[in-house]
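dumping the sequnces here before i forget
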Amino acid sequence: MLDGACGGHDKNNPATWLDRFPVWRAMSGDGWQRALDASTIVSFAAGTPLLQCGEQAEHFVIVLHGVVRVYETAESGREICLYRVRSGEICVLTVSKLLKAKGLCAQAIAEQDVRLLIMPLEHFYRLMATSERFRLQLMAAMANCLSDIMHLVSQVSFQRLDLRLARFIARLARQQSSSLLKFTHQDVANELGTTREVVSRLLKDLEHMGCVRLSRGNIRVVSVEALQKGVGDKTQ
Amino acid sequence: MLDGACGGHDKNNPATWLDRFPVWRAMSGDGWQRALDASTIVSFAAGTPLLQCGEQAEHFVIVLHGVVRVYETAESGREICLYRVRSGEICVLTVSKLLKAKGLCAQAIAEQDVRLLIMPLEHFYRLMATSERFRLQLMAAMANCLSDIMHLVSQVSFQRLDLRLARFIARLARQQSSSLLKFTHQDVANELGTTREVVSRLLKDLEHMGCVRLSRGNIRVVSVEALQKGVGDKTQ
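..and the predicted 3d for all of it:
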């Protein structure tokens, strides 16, 4: 995964990067220092596949900068986003692959340019044995990931797709602090686990309702409130 | 959770129960023995709620006998089964609640009569610190649970409901080694995250296709092969 042509080693000190995150700044001790000394920082450009279905993980990974998208793919080629790993967070998919979880077929891709801290396995296992703080941090990351994916099961099972679409667009607009979303209809489909055709049809409905304005490769949010209200009015 | 009126303490020795499972039989050492000495065995009748949404966990739990069903509920009352915890397995939901995972709202119920090993938290945390085998066992359970739920996201997102229904019925018939399934249409709906009405309609389709025969409170599988083939023929 981590020796691809797109990766370039960075000379920066891992400790300097991790110091920005309270949970990692609170780590201390010789074992932690040795683990950081043995770790490297690797950069990948947006769009680089980081972990494929069936591929084994060979390192413990913390995202230092950027966003990693973890997703599942159907035989039909349809995708659904499972969760994202953001700066300061542990890549739980990597940990699960290290633990050889059965039948794990999720994939990871750099959604933005990313910098990753790559820790050799012997240091990961030593920290697990010696640092209660590290252990709890890791297990909390796994528990939170589990909670997020259980929530996704609820959403996919119980929420109408037009509602999930409207909420996704509203959330994106808030996160980007911009009404102009550079997401193609295919990107939205890959987020929600549906097809481009279905997304295009639902987006047209939202346009007719005055919630969004569509143009090539762009979705402009007219009003987050209108988006939420418009779809809410349709809810039975 | 564990002091409800339905629970009755069992005098049996936890070690005797755990000895049936290779992963637990392989555990040894003073710490493990002390943890077992401090643990209790509790029984609950089928149908007893074990962990509610919002409720905190106060013990580490291993299922010794029977099956625990972990599920999510929608505001509308619809349910979907997330996974089951079977004898010899760790209740990962409890562990996630111990770790105070954010927004965790899954619930657990005894699907059959169950016996649970209840371990006080101080022993759980001590084993985490001192036993690599215990630690890896716990983390593997969390990783496998994550993998199962990621797989469920794929199924719910990408598979047609009639196909999921047919596969569920075929799996039940194989597991029970019986063609007569004592599952109501509501039970099936709660398994798949849909409504009784939808399940009844899809089951009638399967009956017309000669895959099952329906009677009050029962589903009789005419042929597992016919069930799989019949639905397969309808797949686009």
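The two ends of chain A are 47 Å apart (CA to CA).
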